[in-house]
Amino acid sequence: MMLRKAKLRDVDRIFDLLQAYAKEGLLLPRTRQSICESLSSFFVVDQEGEVVATAALHILGDDLAEIRSLAVVKEQHGKGLGKLLVNRLFEEAQELEIPRVLALTYQQAFFERCAFVIVDKAVLHRKIWKDCIHCKKFPLCDEIAMVRATTFYQEAEPQEDTEPDDAVSDVYMDSHAM
């Protein structure tokens, strides 16, 4: 098995793999076009020319990147492919000097084994405003927000552009107060 950057020839297989999990409500659906547009952020695990796992690192800003579209064919579960991808994406975030890596997931135990910790979704204002607001589950998201700090993370005073947007925070908080 080989871990490598995704190539254009992988788009259909990545799409099929993600769609299988999207149909189960475990991943957000992606179009072939959206996969093509963000292809440079995808990695795949290739087994004899067949894509058996995939994931992408999506940069949300100067302080946060997200692991998204993590999927492993069911026959390959338990073989460490997901962890291999998460570790490679974390290395990529380190290389880019991004302080924190986010995962929104239903697989809490898996990400805990990858050194991620649970955080309050309310602190993820940039993610919520950019992507989550378009999700059919918003604002009642049932995914678990988990973050892992890179060596570039430093506790700092919040900068003006990192404060939660009041509108987003209010919508999120109001939905959870019900």
Structure characterization notes:
There is one protein chain. The chain has 178 residues and is of the alpha+beta class. The protein has a single domain, classed as Gcn5-related N-acetyltransferase (GNAT) (Aminopeptidase), CATH 3.40.630. It has 6 helices and 7 strands. The protein has a 7-stranded mixed sheet. A hairpin with a 2-residue loop joins β2 (42-47) and β3 (50-61).
Blueprint of the fold:
Layout: E1 2-5, H1 11-23, H2 32-37, E2 42-47, E3 50-61, E4 64-72, H3 81-95, E5 100-105, H4 108-113, E6 117-118, H5 125-130, E7 144-149, H6 166-177
Parallel strand pairs: 4-5
Antiparallel strand pairs: 1-2, 2-3, 3-4, 5-7, 6-7
Give the termini distance in whole angstroms: 48 Å
| Strand residue content | 25-35%
Q: Which topology does CATH recognise?
A: Aminopeptidase
Total number of beta strands? 7
Mean pLDDT: 83
The amount of helix comes to: 25-40%
Main sheet summary? 7 strands, mixed
Q: What is the C-level CATH assignment?
A: Alpha Beta
> What is the CATH H-level superfamily?
Gcn5-related N-acetyltransferase (GNAT)
Rg over CA atoms: 16 Å
Per the principal axes of the C-alpha atoms, what is the gross shape? globular
Give the uncertain stretches in residue-range form: 156-178
